[in-house]
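To assess whether the prediction recovers the assembly geometry, we first specified each molecular entity separately, as shown.
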Amino acid sequence: MDEQTQVVVETEEDTGATTTKKTIILFSGEFDKVMAAMIIANGAAAMGDDVTIFCTFWGLNILRKTDKVDAQAKKSFLQKAFGGMMPKGTKKLGLSKMNFAGAGAPLMRKVMRDQNAMSLEELFDSARELGVKFVACTLSMDILGFKQEEMIDGLEYAGVASYLGEADEANVNLFI
Amino acid sequence: MDEQTQVVVETEEDTGATTTKKTIILFSGEFDKVMAAMIIANGAAAMGDDVTIFCTFWGLNILRKTDKVDAQAKKSFLQKAFGGMMPKGTKKLGLSKMNFAGAGAPLMRKVMRDQNAMSLEELFDSARELGVKFVACTLSMDILGFKQEEMIDGLEYAGVASYLGEADEANVNLFI
Amino acid sequence: MDEQTQVVVETEEDTGATTTKKTIILFSGEFDKVMAAMIIANGAAAMGDDVTIFCTFWGLNILRKTDKVDAQAKKSFLQKAFGGMMPKGTKKLGLSKMNFAGAGAPLMRKVMRDQNAMSLEELFDSARELGVKFVACTLSMDILGFKQEEMIDGLEYAGVASYLGEADEANVNLFI
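The predicted structure of the complete assembly is given in tokenized form:
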């Protein structure tokens, strides 16, 4: 029996039961939901997990460069309108609840500073330093008219097949 | 050791490490979130996965027939009111963000047409052709007063126990 | 081969392929989303699963005592403001859609009573009786200024590392 027990132990590692890869589809672009995603991602990465955040639709906004990029000539009128109305980067995101016409997120940021909690920007930077992989959904980018030169550096660009391949390898897959 | 290695390999298949079943609880009924669900479902089904979309609460709206069905006599006043105010099918869904009193979704549809992206209706039809299973949550139907004759054909009707049974067999379970 | 087959069977149980633990991050605090979480949790617990609901951000509201607790002296001005504007317990939650300035949830409650469906409060009590574990996210509590004496009894208090540990052991992990 001793040898067979050995097999069981090895098997546990081989069958992927111990995989700790995590994926998050970040669909939402609200301050509080992005915060939740970043806290989970940082926590998992700090524990040694592989983490991929697949940003799609409104979640793409956090990956946009905050400075003006001249890509307007490549966009349709409606894409310019969508792009112009949506926030660039993490600094201008609103709350999903109690937004108070935009005042909610700054108030929550102030409470967080008072508590010495990490800011959303610090969590985002920390996630990237810990090796969390940020993927921009190319289909959503096409629809919203976002161009790669408008996005921050260090991203991967992929579609749903890539997401599914990663999700198949992960043991926790969240849609936020 | 050779024989034991063999055991390990067989075990990998037997323990379900290779299952690629996916489930999605579609709770939301907004155009953009339904789009996300349909893109994931189509992608997974195209890769050969079993996919079940469990529609509940506002997600049930996409399964309603667009033509008038006379089931009013079986409904309470409030159920008629709820039913009357909610969209039937996928064509009237609003956006979760930037809805602009209903103008947001048509604008996003136009951008998608300009990009030659598949429409939501095409994605929905494609999902059904690829064998994605759509389940209508019977408990939500009871609450909202939806009757089976008001729903499109080819659905399954089930409750939370059925969902949990399928989720137990799946390796990716999302709540959208 | 007989002995080795035996190994395979044992392995299935050992590798966690048969685990039926479930985790739910309850981020949202709307009546309909909390209902969905409670229905899933009750269903899973009734089938013998271990279920943990990790309440964070707006989801914390359902864990607040409804009666006045004097913890104001420990809070900043903004935390008092946030706390004062957010609902305590499950009774005052609004709907995520068709809220009609607060009238939506009472209407849905009435429809549910007419259908003899379990109320949200009954589902919440039932979940606790069935052993569903409710965890309050300590980081969110710090930000929103919630103190343990303001929360109902029988909760656990933990952070993201605790969530990740449980999610690693579970086969279904949802973000609601």
